[in-house]
Design brief:
Helix content is 65%, strand content 6%. It is α+β, with helices and mostly antiparallel strands and 450 residues long. It folds into 3 domains: 177 residues, no CATH class; 94 residues; 50 residues, Serine Threonine Protein Phosphatase 5, Tetratricopeptide repeat. It has a 4-stranded antiparallel sheet. Strand 1 and strand 2 form a beta hairpin.
Length: 450
């Protein structure tokens, strides 16, 4: 009986006519806004926190009315059956951010459909321009008039912040980076009001990062991004990897046409970042780019001096040894890179990255030696073989560290493939062919070949 009931309901849903057009009661919303405006000129009402709380509420409703009945991942059947959305005015194919979608055009929105679900949208019209800003100002006034209204004000500000964050997420998916940045900044500003408490500076970081993304197309975004990222740093924000300094570098470097001072500011952003996050590879790469491509920045050896100075004070700092080794690798000084990473492995024997990179640097050193041998003119095979034996000795030193890396992280296909390749290269060495057979079999299984 239950199964028949479910089937009957499904048939009824399929038979029901689809709701037509998006319904946003603009006239009713505007009437509420007009009433709120009238309350402000009423001397008996405009000094009451309740009046301003209501104003914040109705303007928030005006801001969110076009999007409140849709969400990412919404099934198209649910969309069509929704009394607030219904069928679009038009359906067409459209490419957005390099992806082809079916675009459903409504009076206030264009929804982008993929796999039978709402992927993202672009808002085409507002009920009242700037409604969210008016709402934020109203909540601020309510708290100014009556601190006891703080909890209600905070609840309203949280709604506003969440709304702006959602707009930011949607704009990212649509590759509208400036609009996404502005939305995250507005989300932060809603939280930055006194009634809210502690605002999340992560929102400023997102806003600055998105301006960095937009900078190559719109150079003015680099300036805006630098201001936002610096504001986040001033508030004590730091992401776990220190990438904020890398994005700040790009914001300054992207403005270098304005003068050399921007190049030097970009350098300082990286130096500050690498001091705090010496393992951040992107910061190191940015520094090497600056020191090798820009005149007047300095000698790359200065970077080594910076690390050595810090290591003199904290010689057990693994991350500093890690960063020092990466700099020498960038300078193609494999011997010093090996010295640094031997220290990393000494201090942290079970560190996957330490073992893997140490092994890799031995391989890079061996490759460089082999390449140099190929430029020489040998008079006999015996002479060449004698020199190449020294190359093999370098390769052999990599093997135990690759094995340790794989032992620490058996899920690493990089370590496994490196072992397979290195053992094949050293297959004529005693006992290495057996290792090759073992690691090659494991690698083939990891690739689904056995």
């Amino acid at each position: 009986m239950k199964r028949m009931f479910v089937a009957a309901m499904a048939a009824l849903l399929l038979a029901a006519p689809a709701v037509q057009a998006q319904k946003v009661n603009k006239d009713a919303i505007l009437a509420k806004l007009e009433k709120s405006d009238a309350d402000l000129v009423n001397p008996k009402k405009n000094t009451k926190a309740a009046t301003w709380l209501n104003r914040g509420k109705v303007y928030y409703e005006a801001a969110t009315a076009p999007t409140k009945d849709v969400f990412q991942g919404m099934e198209v059947m649910m969309l069509q059956m929704s009394p607030a959305m219904g069928n679009p005015m038009e359906k067409k194919s459209e490419v957005l951010n390099g992806v082809e979608y079916e675009a459903w055009v409504y009076p206030y929105l264009t929804l982008y459909i993929a796999g039978g679900k709402v992927a993202t949208w672009i808002q085409r019209e507002e009920v009242f321009a700037g409604a969210a800003k008016v709402a934020a100002e109203a909540y601020a006034k309510a708290y100014e008039l009556d601190k006891a209204a703080g909890e209600k004000v905070k609840a309203g500000l949280q709604q506003l912040s969440d709304y702006h964050s959602q707009v930011g997420n949607i704009c990212i998916d649509a590759a509208l980076y400036p609009q996404a940045s502005d939305a995250y900044k507005a989300a932060y500003e809603a939280q930055a009001q006194p009634a809210y408490g502690n605002a999340d500076a992560t929102l400023l970081y997102y806003a600055g990062y998105l301006r960095t993304m937009d900078g190559p197309k719109n150079v003015e975004s680099f300036e805006i991004g630098a201001n936002l990222l610096n504001e986040a740093l001033a508030l004590g924000f730091a992401d776990p990897e220190g990438s904020i300094y890398y994005y700040l570098f790009h914001c300054y470097y992207g403005q270098k046409a304005k003068g050399q001072e921007y190049v030097m500011q970009s350098k300082q952003a990286l130096l500050t970042g690498i001091e705090k996050f010496p393992k951040n590879e992107r910061i190191l790469e940015g520094l090497m780019q600056l020191y090798t491509a820009e005149e007047g920045v300095g000698d790359p050896a200065d970077l080594v001096s910076m690390f050595d100075k810090q290591l003199a004070e904290t010689p057990e700092n693994v991350e500093l040894w890690f960063g020092r080794g990466r700099i020498f690798y960038a300078l193609k000084n494999y011997d010093e890179a090996i010295v640094s990473f031997k220290k990393v492995v000494e201090l942290k024997p079970e560190m996957y990255e330490g073992n893997f990179f140490l092994a890799a640097f031995y391989v890079y050193k061996g490759d460089a030696m082999a390449q140099e041998l190929n430029t020489r003119n040998y008079t006999s095979q015996k002479e060449y073989d004698a020199d190449y034996a020294s190359v093999s000795e370098v390769y052999k030193q990599a093997l135990p560290y690759f094995e340790k890396a794989y032992e620490v992280n058996p899920a690493s296909t990089d370590a496994l493939e490196s072992l397979k390749s290195l053992c094949f290269r050293l297959r004529d060495e005693p006992g290495v062919m057996e290792k090759f057979t073992h690691y090659n079999s494991l690698w083939r299984k990891s690739q689904g070949l056995e």
